[in-house]
């Protein structure tokens, strides 16, 4: 090349290519591998991918406004035979034709024991198996279906025991003890929410969004509590909605996913969860036979009064096992953790928010994940720029 062509080529090679290298390094450091914030809750177990690289990060540090456990390992942990106990107490005020639900992700082998009562008659509980984002079919907006409910013929997700232990007094209707075994169904365990779609994060009922940039974990191994409903916003319910259409709406929405739909006893003494600690008038036990999201939906069939419902969940969930791990790859009961990252390593960090035995608060916390840049790799970019300029200067 001669003349103007040589000058143009020189300018291109000494400006565009070096600029590309510099911009690439800034993009990697400040965008691709920038600090990542997650909003996680009690009992969540997540695996962190976003913002991490074994090539461009030499350390991985974590910080949260609550104590947590972190483990650096390859692949995913296996479930152990041990269980952890989660206790959840909830009190709800239910106007007519409204619902409130509590959802959990449960592994096969988990057990849910539920005790509940209502102050007035007409309260019912509906248990369904759904997706991570519970589809409410417009029920929360007051929409109504006009079709009759489909017959329920469920092919095995849980083993249900519904038991009424009774109590002296005329205001507590007695139910016969009955067992409903809905069978067994062998289901392969699917990956739990790999590469979560960001558009679903805005729909998540339990966790409200924050003004700061928060991200979904790439892999959720276990989750906390999902909560939603329209009991606190009953003014949006259409005045002409009838009990039958509301219940038909529920049946039509969940159809084959219904595991149980049953009235539960009422008592004028049912005024708090403390009443359930001393007196058991209804006990529902679910033995989970396949992994999935299970929702306990409470609603009231009482046109005259707002019903008070009180419930206690005792959940026994299998725990993950982290065997034969060195101390440098384990961080327990801390608010800050740091791990070294070997180059070309395929190890990732798993974070779990521990739940102690007993009372559980469904709180949320902010976890900050930081990639500390690997200097020996980033230094290649400015050195390459200088070498390119020197090389093309002699062309």
UniProtKB/TrEMBL annotation:
Keyword tags: Membrane, Transmembrane, Transmembrane helix
Q: Does the keyword Membrane apply?
A: yes
E3 ubiquitin-protein ligase APD1-4 middle domain location is: 283-392
Q: Which Pfam families match?
A: APD1-4_M, APD1-4_N
Please name the InterPro entries in this protein's record. Answer: APD1-4_M (IPR032010), APD1-4_N (IPR032008)
Task: Specify whether Transmembrane is a keyword of the entry.
Answer: yes
* Region feature Disordered, mapped onto this chain: 169-227
Q: What residues form the membrane-spanning segments?
A: 7-28, 376-394
List compositional bias (Basic and acidic residues) regions by residue number. 169-200
Q: Where is the E3 ubiquitin-protein ligase APD1-4 N-terminal domain?
A: 65-132
Checking PANTHER family in the record gives:
DUF4793 DOMAIN-CONTAINING PROTEIN, E3 UBIQUITIN-PROTEIN LIGASE APD1-4 MIDDLE DOMAIN-CONTAINING PROTEIN
- Name-wise, this protein is Uncharacterized protein LOC106118213 isoform X4
Q: Which organism is it from?
A: Papilio xuthus
